[in-house]
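In response to reviewer comment 3 from the previous cycle, which asked for concrete evidence that the modeling workflow produces usable outputs, we include below a single protein chain processed end to end. The sequence was submitted unchanged, and the resulting structure tokens are shown without manual editing.
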Amino acid sequence: MNESARIYDVIVIGGGPVGENVAERARAAGLSAVIVERELLGGECSFWACDPSKALLRPVVARADASRIPGLDPAVAGPLDVDAVLAHRDKMSSYWKDEDQVDWLDSVSVDLVRGHGRLTGPKQVAVQTPEGDTVALTARHAVAVSTGTRAALPPIPGLDTVRPWTSREATSADKVPGRLAVVGGGVVAVEMATAWQALGSQVTMLVLENSLLERMEPFAGELVADGLREAGVDIRFNTTVSSLTRDNNAHSAHSANSANGESGASGEIRITLSDGGQLTADEILLATGRAPQTRDLGLETVGLTPGDWLTVDDTFQVTAIDGGWLYAVGDVNRRALMTHQGKYQARIAGAAIGARANRQPLDTTPWGTHVATADHTAVPQVVFTTPEVAAVGLTSREAEHSGRPIKTVDYNLAHVAGAHQYGEDYRGHARMLVDTDRNTVVGITFAGPGVGELVHSATIAVAGEVPLDRLWHAVPAFPTLGEIWLRLLETYRG
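The workflow returned the following structure tokens.
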């Protein structure tokens, strides 16, 4: 085993989009930087989450949109071409190879060390490479942890014997299971139920709560549930799984894979529910939350607890560490578990690291260069189901808990002229939350076909704290879904 030592201004542990952006921003500030990555450079988003999941979902949403347009029904009503969809998914995931990502890293002059990185003390990281070598890294200024999250699996008896799907398997599977059980009711659960049902799987959702998308406005979950049921998904609310077994001696006769028509060879999964009922599936997806990737990171060597989320300030310094050298950016700090928000955090953190290293003053005023105000006020999200859901800022429940003086404005999206361009039987809803003291929008949620393209205008309104009197002069083009802004403002004015 060989050992080597290197010194950089900034060490980034984790080479997903967040880590890449931290390193690139540090380089832009004139600092040397290295990324430590144990899997594929580009991380979860590029290979097992955002890119492959949206590649699976886009044909589903496009078919649903087209099926409502008169004259197109015969061309789009048939089943999806599974082979073509999966092939496109593979291409969008770069066939699980990261050469393009490595080329980009080279272009911004950031070094890469492949292997498992662990803290060994303040500003010290040891990397075990795939070849068995050890690379000892020292940071002059900062170490940034951007290791993201992993699937959090519930303690179900028999779980370790059934080889369940997590989000990784759900986005990279090369066969369509004949029967898929989805445990959970959040974003991963509803998106993957949408995708695999459309690809030919018989999907059953087992949801602990009494609604889908519990963290969003209730109408959003209701519309998504309606869409899933109409597609053929069996949704069972207030349901828990008490045990699992897989019959490894039985071959399933329920493969829906149009590529080769083979039967599944891994055996049926028998699911026992808490009410004594039973369900049989070929695969089971556990979409039951996320946990931080910090179990084997050497946190104990700097006084932190392995496996914990890392609490940070608004410049992403870990608050429990003296000296301000340790940063935690992206999902690992639990502030907003979305790639785009993590990349926003990375831009803030990278700039803050650069300013501190260069002994420049930090701009930490609200909405300043070195503070992540949007994490608290303007986090956008899109759920790519049929119908779509788009939201930013507070929900009505969160607004109520905040104690602000809020007026809720609701409008039926089907009454907007632009909705008619999406075909017949458009169903959708919009809700705007107005802080009546400040006369600004603090939250908005859209649910309906095509609403994903509305989220950025909503984000600008919330993040920019645009007064409603000024929004009145932002004229929406006719006939587009954007006209919902005019209708919401008219309704608010009364």
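The chain has 15 helices and 21 strands. We consider this sufficient to address the reviewer's concern, and the full set will be provided in the supplementary archive.
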